[in-house]
Amino acid sequence: MSTIYYNASIFDGKNEEITRDAWFEVTDGRIAQIGTGKPSKKAEKNIDLKGKYVTPGLINAHTHMMMNPVTNKLEYLSETEVTATAIQNLRDLLESGVTYIRDCGCAFNTDIKLRNFAKEHDLEAPGIIASGRPMSMTGGHGDFKEGADGEIDWSYLTDSPDEMRKSVRTALKIGADNIKVMATGGVMSAGDNIDDTALTPAEMRVAVEEAHHKGKKVAAHAQGNSGIQNALDAGVDSIEHGIYVDEKQADYMVKNNVYLVPTLNAAASISKYGRDKLPSYMIRKNDQVKSDFFKNVSMAFKKGVKVIVGTDAGTPFNSFKTGTWEEMQLLVNEIGATPTQALLSATQYAADLIGISDNYGTLEPGKFADFLVLDQDPTQSIDAITQDNKLVFQHGKQIK
């Protein structure tokens, strides 16, 4: 079945300019041809988009599908509860225009299981790059209990290079696409501070060695400056959050193609919605760092670090429905990105980071037909992406 969409204004994720009076053909879920003017042939279906704007489907490179951003319950979740929550969150993401995600830590390896299930069944969900359970140290960020009786740790608890090697090999054996390591403390953990270092460079270096040996990448939760440096020294592929990244580290990241996924919306959501609702330690830590966070990410962006859209979706009040749009707005309004740069951070650049650019991230022949249809030009105003009744297509099938 082939469909030609014509009279479109296309942002293809490769070029910064909109291509007007454009058409594209979708066959068997992939883009077959793209052109301008009158289509070169007729298809089985021919749809006039009436000048509306077409963009690649959005990519959210940092989610936690298992978490409920309203209840904020993180511990003693059963596998059934985790799975039910994840399925709803995935549906919300897809309907918002997010057609691919990288999940960065999930109890019971539910992200891996749902990724596998989706390949064989009709699960309405974005494509998934799954990390499974992350790597933490005993007592560190990510050391909390799951299961109704606390029968499993959320993270693999690794306290030596040998334990790290065993844990990463186990994660890869069961199908992790990405390895997540905890290099520092965090806002949401009661027992540590943001500037605390956690996993050692030697431990993380083993994670990188094992992951890269299998062609996989390593993402480091790294908020404090010393922990960011430890993660960079270990050779990770991306810094997640990066609150206290400094100029020297930013220069290193540019030179060595290390990505930054700041998850600005996590801090913004706690600040906007969490007062009088969250534990005092979360509010205190978030208030201490938010201003520095935005300032340091802006510095890194202006130095040329590739800043990627990821939201930490699932953290307190950090919505799966609207968070991706809010992250893109924060990049423009707080960090200094243009709307086009924010779009690239959620399409081409995000696809490069999570390793799916052969098939996703841009609109060009041979790639999957994941795209959005918007009423307004998102390269002129990033607010165009927030359109609630936008059309969402995944592999050529209209989802919404």
UniProtKB/TrEMBL annotation:
Enzyme Commission number(s) from the entry: 3.5.2.7
UniProt KW Hydrolase keyword: yes
Any Pfam family the entry gives: Amidohydro_1
Domain Amidohydrolase-related: 53-390
InterPro entries per record: Amidohydro-rel, Metal-dep_hydrolase_composite, Metal_Hydrolase, Metallo-dep_Hydrolase, OTAase-like
EC class of the enzyme, as a word: hydrolase
Protein's UniProt keywords contain Hydrolase: yes
Any one GO molecular function term: imidazolonepropionase activity
Gene3D superfamilies: Metal-dependent hydrolases, Urease, subunit C, domain 1
Keyword line: Hydrolase
PANTHER family tied to this protein: ALPHA-D-RIBOSE 1-METHYLPHOSPHONATE 5-TRIPHOSPHATE DIPHOSPHATASE (PTHR43135:SF3)
Protein name per its UniProtKB record: Imidazolonepropionase related amidohydrolase
Native species: Lentilactobacillus buchneri subsp. silagei CD034
